# Entry
Amino acid sequence: MRTVVDSERSGWVTMPISMAKEAEGDHRSDDAMVNSPLLRACRRKTVDMTPVWLMRQAGRYLPEYRALRERYSLLELCRQPELAAEVTLQPLRRYPLDAAIIFADILLPVLALGVPLSFAEGEGPVIGAPIRDPAAVDRLPEPDESPLWPVAEAIRIVRAELPERVAVIGFAGAPFTLASYLIEGGSSRQYVRTKRFLLTERSAWERLLERLTELTIRYLMLQVRAGAEVVQLFDSWAGALAPAVYRDAVLPWTRRIVAAVRELGVPVIVFSTGTAGYLDLVADTGADVIGVDWRIELDRAWNAIGARAIQGNLDPAWLLAPAEDLRKAARDVLDRAAGRPGHIFNLGHGVLPETSPDAVAILVEFVHEYSARVRD
# Structure
């Protein structure tokens, strides 16, 4: 037995050596990587057309996904690598997307901490034992990585199925967002419990983020060794915080994750929502790419983050609009990017369940065709 990523810490339940060898896989050569438009854009190199992928591109708007959900729960899909790989590949069979993001749930790492997790119909995730006091942080056991192994195996399957030009993206939730779920007990609008804990139990807060940071680093390294060529860190709830609180109580841990993963030679994307007012702080994470939501124009966001790549940032609601209006909105994003190297087209958040698959086809085709014409 050994871990995929070496650690001086004891107590980890480790991956069998046979599975570890499979997970480590064969890294793509530099020559192969230049054939991927998305990887080139992450490095701010020139591309023939703007690469495009969509958050939640695999999910409830696709009838083939809904058919699987009639037979399997969300956690069952995540726990069976062949099913997770199948869901990941579904949109790639429909659309000429430039990346596949592995299908998993952002909260899988809490299972590694022994925290009960379930999904209530129509209500989202439910944390069975929320953290409400410092003692609960100290009771968290040493992580058991086995709930994360299926993600690595699914990545290996997906990478083997896709052509070289399509990048495989791994992902994880950032420590603040994971901590918020653990403290709130599920989704929230105001994050009152999280903010109270952060502001009144600062030592325990830092111990919790320390645990989540180490776990997230190991999780992302596991994905990279399985074949992920880019990773995205979702800090979906960071916009709930004031800039000063984000800088002092969140940024140092996010920065550590980014630095650790970049040492493996893969680009890191940091995505957050509601942070248009302090994108300069988000850029201080050191990520290669900053993902932005639709609450700020792309050119203004790019000025705020400086000399790095940018991802975004069409409002997902435009996919519900008439086709010509959708194209017009996408054109505005692309015009603001102005063909500069380093733009990855995406939505400002995930595809809405009400979206027509035909609308996604229209969007992907338009982004490729229009951005190629602009470069001619």
